[in-house]
């Protein structure tokens, strides 16, 4: 009789295809914020859910002069503070037995020799079988030196029958030329199929549900085109400022930080044709076609907008403007709000504008894709009956309240024929008992499984920069961005941008 308490012995356990084989994960920059807040808790949660093998090992690489015991205490502290599954002593003990720390700088060849020795020890003592993933949770400027050290120490080369993979955090360059140079350096060391570019937005449950919504339901795909859709709005709004990220953010700006990767990936998934399958190659092929078909408006002055938050009130808290943030140049022209219009030269989307916007210190924290439909060609009602009736819409909420909302017209109860907008709402939290995995849990597991559908390809990255670079070059000629008060929905020119097309931003 099957042992139903053990997924490895339970033939009906749906986790079976998703349990990683023998392997280890090496995290460069393990003492940084990303590892502390996301990566280490995600590894623990994967362990707690039975999705990592008992012999899994985690190696931290950093400058601090730590012992393995010190590192274990640090990991436990991070996990207890931020794990999503209950803290279990036995689970952590299993994980702790495979924790190792290697002290050194990225340009220290001796440190990589020690790392190589540690990897060999894990292969021997924990059965990791030569399978190792290297997570570069480091600034982009460190990617080349770490890659070359991995090559020089022999760590990048996998033994026969094993694998080596590298995980690169965004940003993937700061323009097309730098992205191509980064790809060249990494490709000298790792096979392109072994390079995984992390975009944590693609690990979110709702982003993947977009594929199910479109292609598993006959009711949506027939109207997902220019015959019925008026326009599409893709929004990522944050209600906080730059915090302690001035050193990274100032000079980069929110368009490079968010539009080039997160929003253009959401755009591609929304606009692409149905793939032959959901394999990595087939998904990438369709996303690449859409990104290749993007046409920028000829007049960027009327179809792009940028802004910079000024001081004001965020809820009940008084906050400073961007130029008063610690570490920001008082004369900075870096934008904290960006909006662009994109057109797609395909039969499906001819004449349908896509509006992408993102910003900090906006009215609320929300990420969503809103497909706005055309109005009915004829309304057989008196004009007074439909004066509060707007456009039908399908709104995919990516965060924080993951779900889907349908907006349509319905009759108001009563004797008169009066039609108003109503919402039909689907929420993950109320519809499923299973908790959605955190994005980094899914993406780390995908790397360890060698399953790449949710990772942008080199071609996608390059096409994204080809779209954004002309906009950035135009903005560089304009000087100071338009100011907007904290807690509002961006600069006036963003509203004017849609008003020029006879449209308006929806209020999330």
UniProtKB/TrEMBL annotation:
Signal peptide residues on this chain, from the entry's feature table: none
PROSITE patterns assigned: G6P_DEHYDROGENASE (PS00069)
Reaction catalysis annotation: D-glucose 6-phosphate + NADP(+) = 6-phospho-D-glucono-1,5-lactone + NADPH + H(+)
Name listed for the protein in its UniProt record: Glucose-6-phosphate 1-dehydrogenase
Domain of life, source organism: Bacteria
Source organism of the structure: Bifidobacterium callimiconis
Family per record: Belongs to the glucose-6-phosphate dehydrogenase family.
One GO cellular component term: cytosol
Keywords: Carbohydrate metabolism, Glucose metabolism, NADP, Oxidoreductase
EC number(s) per entry: 1.1.1.49
Enzyme class: oxidoreductase
Active site (UniProt): 262 (proton acceptor)
Lineage of the species this protein comes from: Bacteria, Bacillati, Actinomycetota, Actinomycetes, Bifidobacteriales
UniProt KW ATP-binding keyword: no
InterPro entries found in the cross-reference section: G6P_DH, G6P_DH_AS, G6P_DH_C, G6P_DH_NAD-bd, NAD(P)-bd_dom_sf
GO annotation, biological process: glucose metabolic process; pentose-phosphate shunt, oxidative branch
Domain Glucose-6-phosphate dehydrogenase C-terminal: 211-506
Pathway connected to this protein: Carbohydrate degradation; pentose phosphate pathway; D-ribulose 5-phosphate from D-glucose 6-phosphate (oxidative stage): step 1/3
Residues holding substrate: 200, 204, 238, 257, 360
Gene3D superfamilies associated with the record: Dihydrodipicolinate Reductase, domain 2, NAD(P)-binding Rossmann-like Domain
Functional note: Catalyzes the oxidation of glucose 6-phosphate to 6-phosphogluconolactone.
PANTHER family for this protein: GLUCOSE-6-PHOSPHATE 1-DEHYDROGENASE, GLUCOSE-6-PHOSPHATE 1-DEHYDROGENASE G6PD
Amino acids binding NADP(+): 63, 170
NCBIfam families membership: zwf
Domain Glucose-6-phosphate dehydrogenase NAD-binding: 26-209
One Pfam family matching this protein: G6PD_N
MF terms (GO), sorted A to Z: glucose-6-phosphate dehydrogenase activity; NADP binding
